[in-house]
Specification:
single chain
Length: 169
């Protein structure tokens, strides 16, 4: 996957104190854990992980019936989101993929949500903790398209962005 170092290739569970590795080498303990698995990716985002755990999961934990991987879909990691490899990589975890996007990448997040059913939910930058938690709870019940808001990149715009990031003409 596009030159991932260990900080970006690893996906570890943050639901219990064991912090079992889910990807690339699944820990045997993961299959015996009694907790639902919640992860953040990329792991280099320590404050992002802390915010997800303290702000969202501790408040909504009893309402979440499936494990999720929360993706820091911010401008800092743009180079990962211009091809499908990141999505395939996270899909292999068999966890629901939740994008937490900043205002700069909202159209790109909407593009992925619109074109790939593997994305479970997008939490937008303007969502406060209560509304983000409510969206997460409701997403398990409602249809998928009820949570899509705003403009999306076109396929041409996506292709141009990918070419620019890759340094192509």
């Amino acid at each position: 996957m596009k030159s991932l170092n260990n900080n970006f290739a690893r996906v570890t569970c943050m639901s219990c104190p064991s912090h079992c590795e889910v990807k690339p080498n699944a820990s045997l303990r993961v299959s015996f854990c009694q907790e639902y698995c919640f992860c953040t990716w990329p792991e280099a985002s320590r404050y992002f992980s802390l915010g997800i755990m303290e702000g969202l999961l501790k408040q909504q934990y009893h309402y979440l019936y499936l494990g999720c991987v929360f993706v820091d879909f911010s401008i800092s990691y743009l180079r990962f989101f211009t091809d499908k490899k990141w999505l395939d990589y996270l899909y292999e975890t068999k966890l629901k993929i939740v994008l937490v996007c900043d205002r700069h990448l909202r159209p790109l997040a909407n593009y992925w949500y619109k074109h790939h059913k593997d994305i479970f939910l997008i939490i937008y930058q303007q969502d406060n903790l209560k509304s983000a938690g409510d969206k997460l709870k409701k997403r398990f019940i409602y249809q998928r398209d009820a949570f899509f808001h705003g403009l999306s990149l076109s396929t041409l715009e996506f292709d141009v962005l990918g070419a620019l990031i890759a340094g192509e003409d």
